Amino acid sequence: DTAVSQTPKYLVTQMGNDKSIKCEQNLGHDTMYWYKQDSKKFLKIMFSYNNKELIINETVPNRFSPKSPDKAHLNLHINSLELGDSAVYFCASSPRTGAFNEKLFFGSGTQLSVL
Amino acid sequence: GEDVEQSLFLSVREGDSSVINCTYTDSSSTYLYWYKQEPGAGLQLLTYIFSNMDMKQDQRLTVLLNKKDKHLSLRIADTQTGDSAIYFCAETLYNQGGKLIFGQGTELSVKP
């Protein structure tokens, strides 16, 4: 009964390839996120969707394209992978109560290694 | 600015108290959080405090907030080896639609 599940857990690929990471939450939350965690454990928001609508889009290269087919799913597609894209990517969701109390529930991460 | 800063490492002996500190710069913070990340896992919310409070206690965890100095701390009483993890401080910014900003994490090592 995983609340936020993302696949795959590990992704090893060559530079220049296109890859996707999938995320699903069964918590009934309205808001979903993608975060990137670098090798120094620094965590930075990439995108946020509320009810399938993009609400946060940080300065991320346009090779990264999120897609939310419904509010329970938020996938991340990455084109033309580069060495610097190697990181752990976390999906998260929150109920978005509207009181700025963003309690996030995280998936277990996808470790992307670009060779 | 949006900076949230923490020291990178803390080492304690089992049974001692641990105090993890965090400073933030944005005065529009509404809620402040502590998340825990165990190896190979995602972050898990431990506790949070509203910006008009100065203390919150939850079992072995005590959060102290000094809003004047923009300083947040997490005290873990009777620290156990299972508490070894990375602890992230985070804040939501009222003037940015509630965007969550994380510190760089403090790696807590508990020695038996």
Let me know the average pLDDT of chain B. 90
The ordered H/E elements of chain B are: EEEEEEEEEEE
Would you list the SSEs of chain A in sequence order as H and E? EEEEEEEEEEE
Mean pLDDT of chain A: 90
Structure description:
The complex is a heterodimer of chains A (115) and B (112). Chain A has strands at residues 4-7, 10-13, 19-25, 31-37, 43-50, 53-57, 64-70, 73-78, 87-94, 105-106, 110-114. Chain A has 115 residues and is mainly β. In chain A, strands 2, 4, 5, 6, 9, 10 and 11 form a 7-stranded mixed beta sheet that branches. In chain A, strands 1-3-8-7 form a 4-stranded antiparallel beta sheet, with no helix packed on it. In chain A, strand 5 (43-50) and strand 6 form a beta hairpin. The radius of gyration of chain A is 13 Å and the shape is globular. The relative contact order of chain A is 0.33. Chain B is 0% helix and 60% strand. Chain B has no helices and 11 strands. In chain B, strands 2, 4, 5, 9, 10 and 11 form a 6-stranded mixed beta sheet that branches. A 5-stranded antiparallel beta sheet of chain B has the order 1-3-8-7-6, with no helix packed on it. In chain B, a hairpin with a 4-residue loop joins strand 7 and strand 8. Chain B starts with a strand and ends with a strand. The interface between A and B is medium-sized, with 22 and 25 residues.
Keywords:
heterodimer; A: 115 residues; mainly beta; 7-stranded mixed beta sheet; 4-stranded antiparallel beta sheet; 0% helix; B: 112 residues; 6-stranded mixed beta sheet; 5-stranded antiparallel beta sheet
Fold blueprint:
The complex is a heterodimer of chains A (115) and B (112).
Chain A: E1 4-7, E2 10-13, E3 19-25, E4 31-37, E5 43-50, E6 53-57, E7 64-70, E8 73-78, E9 87-94, E10 105-106, E11 110-114
Parallel strand pairs in A: 2-11
Antiparallel strand pairs in A: 1-3, 3-8, 4-5, 4-9, 5-6, 7-8, 9-10, 9-11
Chain B: E1 4-6, E2 9-13, E3 18-24, E4 29-37, E5 43-50, E6 55-58, E7 61-66, E8 71-76, E9 85-93, E10 99-102, E11 106-111
Parallel strand pairs in B: 2-11
Antiparallel strand pairs in B: 1-3, 3-8, 4-5, 4-9, 6-7, 7-8, 9-10, 9-11
